[in-house]
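Expect sequence, tokenised fold; for instance:
***
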Amino acid sequence: MTFSSGLKNQLTEKFSERVRFNEPMAVHTTFRVGGPADAFVTAMDATEIIFLIQWAAEHHLPYLMVGRGSNLLVTDKGIRGVVISMAGSLAGIEQRGFAGISAMAGAGLGALCRFAIANGLGGLNFAMGIPGSVGGAIRMNAGAWEGSMGQILTGIRIIRPDGTIGFMDKKLMKFSYRSLAFCPESGLELSACVILEGVFALTSQDPDMLKTEADALLAARKKSQPVSLASAGSFFKNPVDQEPAGRLIDLAGCKGLSVGDAQISPQHANFIVNHGRASARDILRLMRMVQETVFQKFNILLEPEVEIVGDESTEKKSV
């Protein structure tokens, strides 16, 4: 798909320097790979997001919402249509009542955790060191150290498919391992909505104690995970009632396996790292090699936790 000059002019008039065309997604993902987006727009508020969604529908263009690109693998052919970014905007965080927090979808998880610690609010330390934004973490029910977003969330503010904004209570949401869905009685599909804000119920705790705990968790993460290298975090979901994905990959002899500059981390086998010049094709080939090897050895098919997006390609279709 090629944007006509007329469509480009419309977006440029509205968003000025906040719209870029043929924008390489590699600079917007923690994997540091990905081809160009036809149009990449940084939205500053809900009104702009609604405008972009409706504009894309009017012109029969697909759109994709992104945060900080931490759980995203964009194919080398890139993304057709409009990429709407919340990164760097919609990032407000504030305390609600005695022990609650509301955080906009574009806020970083690290910033949210630090805010909670500074205000003596416990329950979020499990998220220390998890990259990404609040909106993405809610959508995938991010978690670690026996904690997850679904355990502390009380509700979300969303943009509905008709462009209106509303609040959805947790009782209308169904959380499971690394996923979120709306209950049928909500009358909505998660994929048709945009998460704008999350509201969390926490507990009052001593800030110094919380900081000590957070520092220990961060130290453990740095010791066990390749945090200094480009990656998308844990690549595969842990199979139900089985060994963790990283353990299965290790036992299958895949730790350290490489395709180009993409490698199964020798430090943690459930991380695929980019040593600098990996392509999405390299990462996808490595993913399939691991899946096939683990399946042959254990009869377990590992499912990606990372969201694979972008223009249809040979690499993606074979996933």
